[in-house]
Every structure is written in structure tokens, then in C-alpha cells.
């Protein structure tokens, strides 16, 4: 019987599939770290109080990338090149989600509108990250190989999501509410398409590595399409609501010390 736990356990137990999984995750987290670092450096003067939180966000993402690389190193594995069709962050940028890298490479302050756009896009993608890590934490928090990493990263992703909610509500109260809702909706509808395509690509690569029979591969693909259909029909709305989080100022402190996994 196919289940999220059995599927991931199969990926975890094979060196090549585990290496691909960790390489994809490490690459995405590292790119997120760079993006947030550049945004923190370019925050406009009127929003300088936000810069340390954006920097903290970036430091967390960098930490996650190091954790995934350390998990590979612990098993004597080296990262592999990430297939382009599995590069979630690159494909998001290609589809206009997030601030363009060309813009971030210029040493020109961002506008308040840029910051609102960044936070709205982050609110959508951090929803996805939080849900994925919550699923892994549910099934693998006690795992001897990845348990500590899963719990640490999951807690960080929850903090990132809380931070996005709080800051977007602050901007909404300041008069940016309509822009925020428009950007959230556009981003969510695009993200669910990218997530579907990346999920199909990742499962195709994993299927080749693990020699999945055609019936299994077809069942997994059908499941991915079913998730997309649900999200397209209305599931995307969970990504655009804004609620003041129970934990306020979630990124207000210094980054947590990285736990050694190697």
C-alpha cells in the first residue's frame, strides 16, 4: 500500500535516491538563504527594522542547506547536480514568483512595494514548506537518521510562516491590503502549478533510481494530479489567508545554533 511514510522510507533507504533528495533540498534552501540575505541588505530606509528579521530568515535557510549536506556527508555521499525540472526555486523565479535575481544583484534599495511582494510570495512558499516538514515530522521525528534535522527545520519553517503572517498584516493595516491579496492570489495559483510539475519530475527521477514498476509510477502521478485538482478548485485559498500568529516576533531573535549532523 502506498503511503507518504512508506514512500519516503524507500527514498531514505537507498543511497542514490537519498542523495538526490538531499541535493534538491540543499540547493533550494541555499538559494533561499542568498535571496533573503540580499533582500536584507537592500531593505529601504523606511523599513530598516525589518532587515534583521529578513537576515534571520536567510540565515535559517542557509542552515537548512548545511544540514542536508551534512546528512549526505554522514553517509559518505556527495551532492549531485540538481535536475532542472526539479529545481523548485528556479522555476518559481522563472514564473515570476519572488524578486528577480537580476534585481537583487543590483546595489539599489528595494521599494516598499518590493518588500510587500517578497513577503506575500514568502507567505505562499512558506506555507508549502511548513506543511511538507510537518508531514515529515509526523512520520520521522523519531528516526535515528533524519529525526533531529526534521524537527529543527520544521520548527524554523513554522517560524517563517508566522513571521510572514505578522508582517503582511502590519502592511495591510498600513494601507497595502488590496495589493497583498492580489499578489497572494496570483502567487498561490502559480505556485500550485510549479509544485505539481516539480513533484511529477521528482517522482519520475526517483522512479528511475528505485526501478518502480509502471503501475506504481502511474499511481503516484495520479495522486499528484489529484492534489493539484484539489488545490486548483479551492485548496489554494489556505495559502492566501492572513491570521495573527500565536507566536509574535517569531524571527526577532538571533539565529539558532546549528546542530552538527556530520
Structure description:
- It is built from 8 helices and no strands.
- The protein is an all-alpha fold and 262 residues long.
- Helix 1 (4-13) packs across helix 2 (15-42), helix 2 packs antiparallel against helix 3 and helix 6 (112-140) packs across helix 7 (147-210).
- The longest helix has 64 residues, at 147-210.
- It is globular, with a radius of gyration of 18 Å.
- The model has no long low-confidence stretch (mean pLDDT 94).
Outline of this structure?
The protein has 262 residues and is mainly alpha-helical. Helix content is 71%, strand content 0%.
What distance separates the N and C termini? 33 Å
Count of individual beta strands: 0
CA-based gyration radius: 18 Å
- Beta-strand portion reads under 5%
Which shape, going by the Cα principal axes? globular
Helix-strand category? mainly alpha
Series of secondary-structure elements, N-terminal to C-terminal: HHHHHHHH
> Could you tell me the mean pLDDT?
94
Helix content: over 70%
Instruction: Identify low-pLDDT runs.
Output: none
Amino acid at each position: 500500500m502506498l503511503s507518504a511514510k512508506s514512500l519516503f522510507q524507500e527514498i531514505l533507504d537507498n543511497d542514490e535516491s537519498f542523495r538526490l533528495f538531499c541535493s534538491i533540498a540543499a540547493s533550494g534552501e541555499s538559494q533561499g538563504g542568498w535571496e533573503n540575505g540580499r533582500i536584507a541588505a537592500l531593505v529601504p530606509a523606511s523599513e530598516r527594522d525589518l532587515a534583521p528579521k529578513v537576515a534571520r530568515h536567510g540565515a535559517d535557510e542557509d542552515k537548512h542547506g548545511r544540514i542536508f549536506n551534512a546528512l549526505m556527508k554522514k553517509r559518505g555521499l556527495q551532492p549531485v547536480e540538481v535536475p532542472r525540472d526539479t529545481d523548485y526555486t528556479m522555476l518559481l523565479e522563472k514564473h515570476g514568483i519572488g524578486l528577480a535575481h537580476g534585481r537583487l544583484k543590483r546595489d539599489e534599495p528595494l521599494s516598499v512595494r518590493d518588500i510587500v511582494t517578497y513577503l506575500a510570495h514568502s507567505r505562499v512558499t512558506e506555507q508549502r514548506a511548513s506543511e511538507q516538514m510537518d508531514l515529515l515530522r509526523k512520520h520521522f521525528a523519531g528516526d535515528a537518521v533524519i529525526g533531529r534535522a526534521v524537527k529543527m527545520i520544521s520548527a524554523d519553517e513554522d517560524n517563517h510562516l508566522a513571521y510572514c503572517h505578522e508582517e503582511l498584516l502590519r502592511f495591510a493595516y498600513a494601507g497595502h491590503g488590496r495589493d497583498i491579496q492580489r499578489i497572494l492570489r496570483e502567487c498561490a495559483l502559480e505556485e500550485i502549478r510549479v509544485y505539481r510539475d516539480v513533484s511529477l519530475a521528482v517522482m519520475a527521477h526517483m522512479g528511475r533510481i528505485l526501478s518502480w514498476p509502471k503501475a506504481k509510477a502511474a499511481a503516484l502521478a495520479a495522486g499528484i494530479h489529484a492534489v493539484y485538482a484539489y488545490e486548483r478548485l479551492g485548496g489554494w485559498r489556505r495559502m492566501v489567508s492572513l491570521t495573527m500568529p500565536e507566536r509574535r516576533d517569531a524571527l526577532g531573535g538571533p539565529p539558532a545554533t546549528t546542530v552538527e549532523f556530520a
